[in-house]
């Protein structure tokens, strides 16, 4: 069984618990063990790098150093956590002076960053490390007839992480949905930002961005939006009523994590995947 050091991040402890639980369940069914990183700390989320860059790198590097002690590659489920961990890992490998500054701070915790591991997003583990065909081979409950908007969001794909990565026309999310029997729609807004934390500073602009995403997904016949980020899930689900009030729409489309849909296709019971705990219930769409 392939093992990774699993960094859940702050969101998966509470608001994205369905992502946390379904990710572990689906990974186990696919022969992957996610061993939660002991004594992990917040990665700094989307804002801290604009407040104190050096301290933000140190926060993230501490998690990398903990994973290095276990000699395991680090896996994150949250897009922001993944971005911070991935680029901190790369920058420290490329900048010895920055690494020296970070390691001076890490000495207080008897830790050291050596650059010996890689950082993966959970969806990359599914699509690339496990592989689309291997997932397809384990499907026992194909999601036939389920039209899915596969939503990458903006942080997983950008900026480009390695030379051959196609950041403009990725296909692996759609391929994964096809592998589990679903029908991925032509979703033009699949790489657009969900507005992130813009709701705190410019509510009108944020609701407009969410509206456009929902409009595009529903307009192309999606019954479910699948995402790989807790912030995207919250924005697209929790603010549907506010979008409806603002724009006179009637959106009511469930937003699930890709791990929930994959897990369902693998024959895992919906309750074990936390399906049924969402605000916009997915049961009607899944039972069609």
Strand order of the largest sheet: 2-1-3-4
Please name the CATH topology of the largest domain.
Answer: Rossmann fold
Q: How would you classify the helix and strand content by structural class?
A: alpha/beta
Shape: globular
**What are the segments in which pLDDT stays under 50 over at least 5 consecutive residues?**
none
> What summary fits the major beta sheet?
4 strands, parallel
Q: Tell me the name of the CATH class of the largest domain.
A: Alpha Beta
Summarize the helices and strands and which ones pair or pack.
Elements: E1 2-7, H1 17-29, E2 32-36, H2 53-70, E3 74-76, H3 79-94, H4 96-106, E4 119-121, H5 122-137, E5 147-151, H6 172-179, E6 183-184, H7 203-219, E7 224-227, H8 230-238, H9 240-247, E8 255-257, H10 258-265, H11 283-286
Parallel strand pairs: 1-2, 1-3, 3-4, 5-6, 5-7, 7-8
Helix pairs in contact: 1-10, 2-3, 2-4, 3-4, 5-6, 7-9
Description of the structure:
- This protein has 288 residues and is α/β, with parallel strands linked by helices.
- The strands form two sheets. Strands 2-1-3-4 form a four-stranded parallel beta sheet, with helices on both faces. Strands 6-5-7-8 form a four-stranded parallel beta sheet, sandwiched between helices.
- The chain folds into two domains: 2-121, Glutathione S-transferase Yfyf (Class Pi), Chain A, domain 2; 142-286, Rossmann fold (3-Layer(aba) Sandwich), CATH 3.40.50.
- It contains eleven helices and eight strands.
- Helix content is 44%, strand content 11%.
- Helix 1 runs parallel beside helix 10, helix 2 packs across helix 4 and helix 5 (122-137) runs parallel beside helix 6.
- The radius of gyration is 19 Å and the shape is globular.
- The protein starts with a strand and ends with a helix.
- It has helices spanning 17-29, 53-70, 79-94, 96-106, 122-137, 172-179, 203-219, 230-238, 240-247, 258-265, 283-286; strands spanning 2-7, 32-36, 74-76, 119-121, 147-151, 183-184, 224-227, 255-257.
């Amino acid at each position: 069984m392939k093992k990774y050091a699993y960094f859940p991040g702050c969101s998966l402890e509470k608001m994205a618990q369905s992502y946390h639980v379904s990710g572990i369940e689906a990974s186990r069914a696919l022969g992957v063990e996610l061993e939660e990183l002991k004594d992990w700390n917040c990665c700094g989320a989307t804002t801290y790098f604009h407040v104190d860059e050096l301290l933000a790198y140190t926060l993230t590097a501490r998690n990398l150093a903990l994973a290095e002690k276990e000699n395991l590659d680090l896996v994150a489920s949250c897009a922001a956590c993944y971005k911070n961990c991935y680029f901190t890992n790369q920058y420290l490998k490329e900048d010895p002076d920055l690494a020296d500054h970070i390691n001076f701070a890490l000495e207080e915790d008897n830790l050291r960053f050596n650059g010996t591991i890689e950082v993966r997003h959970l969806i990359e583990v599914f699509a690339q490390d496990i592989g689309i065909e291997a997932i397809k081979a384990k499907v026992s409950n194909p999601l036939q007839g389920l039209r899915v908007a596969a939503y990458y969001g903006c942080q997983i794909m950008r900026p480009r992480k390695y030379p051959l990565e196609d950041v403009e026309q990725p296909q692996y999310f759609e391929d994964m949905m096809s592998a589990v029997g679903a029908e991925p729609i032509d979703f033009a807004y699949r790489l657009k930002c969900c507005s992130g934390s813009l709701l705190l500073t410019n509510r009108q602009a944020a609701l407009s961005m969410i509206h456009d995403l929902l409009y595009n997904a529903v307009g192309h016949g999606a019954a479910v939006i699948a995402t790989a980020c807790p912030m995207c899930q919250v924005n697209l689900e929790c603010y549907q009523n506010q979008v409806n009030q603002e724009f006179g729409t009637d959106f009511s489309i469930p937003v699930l994590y890709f791990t929930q849909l994959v897990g369902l296709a693998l024959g895992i019971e919906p309750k074990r995947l936390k399906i049924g705990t969402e605000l916009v219930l997915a049961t009607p769409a899944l039972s069609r």
